[in-house]
From TrEMBL:
Xref: Gene3D superfamilies: P-loop containing nucleotide triphosphate hydrolases
Pfam families cross-referenced by the UniProt entry: ABC_tran
Transmembrane segments: none
Repeat among keywords: yes
Keywords (A to Z) from UniProt: ATP-binding, Nucleotide-binding, Repeat, Transport
UniProt KW rRNA-binding keyword: no
Protein name in the entry: Sugar ABC transporter ATP-binding protein
Domain ABC transporter: start-end pairs: 20-260, 279-514
InterPro entries tied to this protein: AAA+_ATPase (IPR003593), ABC_carbohydrate_import_ATPase (IPR050107), ABC_transporter-like_ATP-bd (IPR003439), ABC_transporter-like_CS (IPR017871), P-loop_NTPase (IPR027417)
Listed GO MF terms: ATP binding; ATP hydrolysis activity
Length: 515
């Protein structure tokens, strides 16, 4: 493996069929060089992963290839198209299909209509002489089976689908849309491990059909399971392109962040000394959770693992007042409490970090200062007037302590996913909660930002707080937690000691445990 300082692709194979060629591609925004002279070639029938830390430029490159953005300089030529793509319509004509991290699903359309959305959008089905698309056809059902959604009715509305199902429904369109290049931009971020096998099957079919697949992802285990080559970006520059078979996750991590990443040390056992749990949940019902019971003690990190639809997020939202419980008892240090609203939870010093930071984690039109101080504004106010100087000084400290890029006045929505997540974490931890629930805390963020989040979680527990981490990533919980509870069909079906368990144990239990 060799790094090329000029961004040259050292793995170019003149015998392969070129699908696209990027030459000297730059993309500048005010004050930011998102891409700075990238040369990269993609080939038919291969998976080219594009990796990098948050803000490295990987999603920007994907958007340029898809015509969503236009280069500041340089161009991207797609094979068979007469000139560089300049917009999304031309990229589509050239055969580029982009699958976004946030799937385009129309809630008021049926599952079948969402499969055929791009054909319906084209307008061919609104002309009286055109042949109508049968969205309830055998073909539609075959397409759904191909992405692990064969159990869904084509006639049911899409609004009831979970995040993973919505993403897989979006991916199903690959089977009914003509394309030569398919971009998967963080499309596995909202899916769980059982759906990744469906994505692998989809990618194998696409490769066999000669499609060039661009896979943008933070999850290096998935990158190495899928990719033929890996292009690594850092600070807008292409630092290297390596063959997956000749490299390792540690090698790629070092290229991404400029240094090797130290392994996460498993937490030391917690001494209880007979004190009651910080939080005790007995026979909880709410959402899809059915009769869930567990305790979390001071200084303990408990993991809650399950596949899509297992009820893990229902538990997280119910024990933090995001949704009302319909049964069960919650006690905090031995005192029974009722949590009807998030405000009730906050007054009880309970914090919830949502799995959907863009929708629920921060206010889109607020800057870092406004978002990070939002929960604790009453502490900074006198007679209803906020002390702006105190607020600004404290936010500066939080930006430093949580290693957030940007200043107090930087708009949070302009930050990379990892930095947005650190803003959300800082906002809630500033409230000094005794019980913290983090739902998918590292969803869609790179390995460097993950390490920061893990260190923060461990430091919270070290201060005697009780922590519940909800995750669909077994490996993450095994390295981070003291105990792991596995959910299936709304119930906790097993508990594991990470010292004596592995990913197979968790996944097999989540898939096959008999109630």
């Amino acid at each position: 493996m060799t790094s090329d300082q000029h961004g040259h692709d050292p793995t170019t194979d003149p015998q392969q069929t070129v699908a696209f060629r990027a030459t000297g591609v730059k993309k500048h925004y005010p004050g930011v060089k998102a891409l700075d002279g990238v040369d990269l070639t993609g080939y038919a029938g291969e998976v080219l992963a594009v990796c990098g830390a948050n803000g490295a430029g990987k999603s920007t490159f994907a958007k340029l290839l898809a015509g969503v953005e236009t280069p500041t300089d340089g161009d991207i030529m797609v094979a068979g198209y007469p000139h560089p793509v300049r917009n999304a319509a031309e990229a589509e004509q050239a055969g580029v299909l982009m699958m976004h991290q946030e799937p385009l699903i129309i809630d008021d359309f049926t599952v079948g209509e969402n499969v055929w959305l791009y054909k319906l959008r084209a307008g061919r089905d609104i002309r009286p002489w055109a042949q109508k698309t049968n969205t309830n056809s055998q073909r539609t059902r075959e397409v759904l089976r191909g992405v692990g959604l064969g159990h869904l009715r084509t006639t049911e509305l899409a609004r009831g689908l979970g995040p993973g199902q919505r993403q897989m429904l979006s991916l199903s369109r690959a089977a009914v849309t003509k394309h030569r290049i398919m971009i998967l931009d963080e499309t596995t971020a909202s899916t769980s491990e059982e759906h990744f096998n469906d994505i692998l099957d989809l990618v194998r079919r696409e490769k066999a059909a000669g499609t060039c697949i661009i896979f943008v992802s933070h999850r290096l285990n998935e990158v190495f399971a899928m990719a033929d080559r890996i292009a690594v970006l850092r600070n807008g520059r292409l630092v290297d392109v390596v063959r997956a078979a000749d490299s390792s996750p540690d090698d790629v991590t070092a290229l991404m962040i400029g240094q090797a990443l130290k392994a996460l040390a498993r937490p030391a056992p917690v001494e209880h000394h007979g004190a009651p749990p910080v939080i005790s949940v007995q026979d909880l019902y709410g959402g899809s959770a059915r009769g869930v019971s567990f305790d979390v003690r001071s200084g303990e990190i408990v993991g809650l693992y399950g596949l899509v639809g297992s009820g893990r997020s229902s538990v997280a939202r119910t024990v933090t007042g995001q949704r009302q419980a319909v049964g069960g008892v919650v006690t905090m240090r031995g005192e029974r409490i009722k949590l009807s609203t998030p405000g009730d939870a906050l007054r009880r010093r309970i914090a919830y970090l949502t799995e959907d930071r863009r929708l629920e984690g921060f206010v889109n039109d607020f800057d870092n200062g406004q978002n990070m101080s939002l929960v604790v504004l009453p502490r900074m106010a006198r007679a209803g007037v906020v002390n702006a100087g105190q607020e600004k000084a404290r936010v500066k400290e939080l930006i430093r302590d949580f290693q957030v890029k940007g200043g107090v006045k930087t708009m949070t929505k302009s930050l990379s996913g990892g930095n947005q997540q650190k803003v959300v974490v800082a906002k809630w931890l500033e409230a000094d909660p005794d019980f913290v629930v983090l739902d998918e805390p590292t969803k869609g963020i790179d390995v460097g930002a993950r390490a920061n989040i893990y260190e923060i979680i461990q430091s919270v527990a070290a201060r005697g707080k009780a922590v519940l981490v909800v995750s669909s990533e077994a490996e993450e919980l095994l390295s981070l937690c003291h105990r792991i509870l596995v959910m299936r069909n709304g119930k906790v079906v097993a508990e594991f000691d990470p010292e004596h368990a592995d990913t197979d144990d968790l996944i097999r239990t989540a898939l096959t445990h008999q109630d």
